[in-house]
Amino acid sequence: MSKENNNKVMIMLPGEQVASIEEFEGGKNTYLTQDGTIRSAAIGTKAMDLKRRVIKIEPKNAPMLPKIGDILVGYVEMIFASMISVKVLYINGVESTSGFSAIASMRVGGGGRDRRERPIFRTGDIIRGRVMSLLNSTVHMTIAEREFGVLYTTCFMCGGDTVKVNDTVKCIECGAWEPRKLTNDYGKETLRQIFRAGGSR
Ligand SMILES: [Zn+2]
């Protein structure tokens, strides 16, 4: 894959090839297949004992994946018919590097009885939500409550800074506005605080 990925610690999934039997002996959390391949029996990272030529998998007991009730912050990467996919950057205020995504329903009610008033989402919107289920290994989050929804976004017309005006987001540069499902603390300053507290960038 890309160069960037090579520098990161590789996470092995169950069934993935860890090594061949010519190179290593399979240790903890591995199994041997008939063709002489050592495969991972857990989610974790490779650990090699070069002296004994044993390779094992150090299990990751999922501190990197969220639990129900966790607060997630990320950005909209994809928009489907009625769902958004959010690339998660922070779990409970701590930066997450595991690169998973959560999905949320765009049917958040609130705003309008009128269909046309339904809030809009755009890729790149910064979203805050809470994990409500982990069904089928998919992280589902809700953005329906007051403190959830779009936390910050730039103007869809000119890329300018925006402010919250009732249930709309308004550009302070060009004046363009859109109905959105916004958090009660919407704004650039909130985003800045999350970045600062999360300890990165
Ligand atoms: Zn604008």
From TrEMBL:
Location(s), subcellular: Cytoplasm
MF-aspect GO terms: zinc ion binding
Major location (coarse): cytoplasm
InterPro entries for this protein: Csl4, Exosome_Csl4_arc, NA-bd_OB-fold
Binding annotation for Zn(2+): 155, 158, 171, 174
One cellular component term from this protein's GO annotations in UniProt: cytoplasm
Record key words, sorted: Cytoplasm, Exosome, Metal-binding, Zinc
Superkingdom field: Archaea
Quaternary structure and interacting proteins, as annotated: Component of the archaeal exosome complex. Forms a trimer of Rrp4 and/or Csl4 subunits. The trimer associates with an hexameric ring-like arrangement composed of 3 Rrp41-Rrp42 heterodimers. Interacts with DnaG.
Function: Non-catalytic component of the exosome, which is a complex involved in RNA degradation. Increases the RNA binding and the efficiency of RNA degradation. Helpful for the interaction of the exosome with A-poor RNAs.
Family: Belongs to the CSL4 family.
Protein name, entry field: Exosome complex component Csl4
Gene symbol of the encoding locus: csl4
